[in-house]
């Protein structure tokens, strides 16, 4: 009877204490969240209750397993399994707590600052910091798990003895990976590009959607995703339309006939912009920038507060101006001049002396 009750009591008590402590902790966090609604830290910490309870349960079972006298012939294997679970759950809990703290800090910063560029920069840094923390905690947890095996501890001395040679070999083999890793850190803290920035890379216009330690994802205007190594942004030039102030200036070109009414077009441009909510009102003009034998190039300059709005203003101006010219001034649109071909004047060849003599000679006959 004792052999049955002992393991049931030990395991049941461990599970009961885990549920009780987890419930009490969750109640305290809920009350703290109600008392301090201005900070989301306590609510985010409640998301870590699963790894927290797993840590408690694994620790209690690992500490009381010897008293349970269960599976005596597999004591070493069960004890090592509980240790591995405890290490993994502890790493999971540390990552969740770090994520809650970092996200809370970012939320406070985003609410306190209205500069979108600075907020995107901090968001990029926070994202990469969490990835670094997760990677470090994961490596430490895996190393701790491996060290629980005696064979791995014995191999540790030989591994340390050859660490210098292995480091050189690994550095040469992972040169591109390391360069991307350091490039990712440089991007995060060098403020070169941030999540949410509008960039142009390899002729593609898009928005930075994700930045990791090794690659960066750009979402194009047509919903495609371009993934490229972060080392690209530290070794090649690219356009960042969100760097500094997001205000932009755009241009619209038309090829028109020389008789196009420029003053009327300037008035129409002002009317179009006044009715376009995307125009920020900073500047606008219309000038002739080039001329050919058949047409002239007319350029309109407009402004907007960001890249999205400048695109809207440009397409609106281009479409409405062409529609207005077609309806009101069709002669201003480019034309191809065609006409019947005119042959060169016919030139009679000048007669020579021999031909004139033959023309005026009397025809010879048999008569005298």
Question: Care to describe what's here?
Answer:
A five-stranded antiparallel beta sheet has the order 4-3-2-1-5. It is elongated, with a radius of gyration of 40 Å. Helices cover 59% and strands 15% of the residues. Helix 3 packs antiparallel against helix 4, helix 5 crosses helix 8 and helix 10 (262-274) packs across helix 11. It is built from twelve helices and eight strands. The protein is an alpha+beta fold and 368 residues long. The chain has helices at 2-35, 41-46, 49-68, 75-112, 116-147, 150-161, 163-173, 175-190, 232-235, 262-274, 307-328, 353-360, and strands at 198-201, 204-211, 215-220, 225-229, 239-240, 248-256, 279-291, 296-304.
Largest sheet: 5 strands, antiparallel
Span between N and C termini?
170 Å
Low-confidence stretches: 168-174
The average pLDDT value, as a whole number, equals 76
Shape: elongated
- In angstroms, what is the radius of gyration? 40 Å
- SSE run: HHHHHHHHEEEEHEEHEEHH
How many extended strands?
8
Strand content: 15-25%
Instruction: Determine the fraction of residues in helical runs and give it as a percent range.
Output: 55-70%
How would you sum up this structure in a few lines?
This protein is an alpha+beta fold and 368 residues long. The protein has helices at 2-35, 41-46, 49-68, 75-112, 116-147, 150-161, 163-173, 175-190, 232-235, 262-274, 307-328, 353-360, and strands at 198-201, 204-211, 215-220, 225-229, 239-240, 248-256, 279-291, 296-304. The longest helix has 38 residues, at 75-112.
């Amino acid at each position: 009877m004792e052999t049955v009750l002992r393991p049931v009591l030990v395991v049941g008590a461990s599970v009961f204490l885990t549920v009780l402590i987890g419930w009490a902790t969750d109640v305290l966090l809920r009350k703290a969240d109600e008392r301090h609604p201005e900070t989301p830290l306590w609510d985010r910490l409640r998301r870590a209750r699963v790894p927290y309870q797993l840590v408690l349960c694994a620790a209690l079972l690992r500490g009381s397993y010897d008293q349970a006298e269960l599976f005596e012939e597999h004591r070493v294997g069960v004890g090592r399994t509980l240790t591995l679970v405890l290490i993994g759950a502890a790493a999971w809990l540390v990552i969740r707590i770090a994520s809650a703290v970092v996200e809370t800090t970012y939320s406070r910063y985003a609410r306190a600052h209205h500069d979108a560029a600075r907020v995107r920069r901090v968001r990029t840094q926070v994202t990469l910091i969490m990835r670094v923390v997760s990677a470090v905690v994961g490596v430490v947890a895996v190393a701790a798990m491996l060290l629980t095996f005696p064979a791995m501890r014995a191999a540790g001395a030989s591994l340390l003895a050859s660490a210098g040679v292995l480091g050189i070999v690994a550095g040469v083999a992972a040169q591109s990976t390391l360069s991307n890793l350091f490039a990712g850190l440089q991007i995060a803290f060098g403020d070169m590009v941030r999540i949410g920035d509008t960039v142009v890379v390899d002729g593609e216009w898009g928005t930075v959607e994700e930045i990791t330690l090794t690659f960066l994802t750009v979402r194009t205007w047509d919903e495609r995703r371009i993934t490229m190594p972060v080392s690209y942004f530290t070794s090649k030039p690219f356009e960042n339309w969100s760097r500094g102030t997001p205000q932009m200036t755009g241009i619209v070109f038309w090829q028109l006939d020389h008789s196009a009414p420029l003053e009327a077009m300037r008035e129409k441009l002002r009317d179009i912009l006044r009715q376009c909510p995307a125009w920020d009102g900073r500047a606008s003009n219309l000038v002739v920038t080039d001329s050919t034998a058949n047409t002239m190039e007319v350029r309109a300059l407009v402004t907007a507060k960001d890249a999205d709005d400048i695109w809207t203003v440009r397409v609106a101006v281009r479409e409405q101006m062409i529609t207005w010219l077609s309806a009101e001034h069709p002669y201003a649109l480019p034309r191809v001049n065609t006409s019947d071909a005119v042959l060169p004047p016919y030139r009679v060849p000048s007669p020579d002396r021999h031909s004139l003599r033959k023309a005026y000679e009397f025809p010879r006959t048999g008569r005298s």
